[in-house]
Design brief:
About 45% of the residues lie in helices and about 15% in strands. With about 140 residues, the chain is α/β, with parallel strands linked by helices.
């Protein structure tokens, strides 16, 4: 019997890792790759939370994001372009393209944002469970 119905990953959008040598986003992407491509989770929905959007917006005007993300080619001051790049970074590691990747940019301290996100996640899980029941 399958117990796991969805896999949730929470990722900080801050740039540098604890050791200052490996970018935190790179570490997170590598971990996400290991988990999302694990055969144990091949039939579960994937929900990615990209957290600390508030800190990302605060830091964009003060730093050069290409220093941390050398492959970024957009406007380093445009939050939407940076978020799109970050989402693509995680989306591109998924091998199973048949499964949707649900994502949310979050600010954990923004209670209204979190309420909205968790309602959307609950709906996603409910929809997936209903779809699975219809297939059985």
């Amino acid at each position: 019997k399958k117990v796991v119905t969805s896999l949730k990953a929470v990722v900080s959008t801050q740039s540098t890792g604890e050791d200052k040598r490996t970018p935190r986003l790179e570490e997170s992407c590598n971990i996400f790759d290991t988990i999302v491509n694990n055969k144990c989770f091949k039939d579960v929905s994937i929900i990615l939370f990209l957290n600390k959007t508030d800190l990302l917006m605060e830091k964009l005007p003060q730093s050069d994001i290409t220093q941390y993300l050398p492959n970024f080619r957009g406007d380093p001051q445009d939050i939407k372009e940076v978020q799109g790049f970050l989402l693509d970074m995680f989306d591109n590691v998924r091998r199973n393209r048949d499964r949707a990747l649900f994502h949310h940019f979050t600010t954990a301290t923004d209670t209204e944002n979190i309420k909205y996100v968790f309602a959307a996640v609950k709906d996603t899980i409910l929809q997936n469970n209903l779809r699975q029941l219809m297939l059985q």
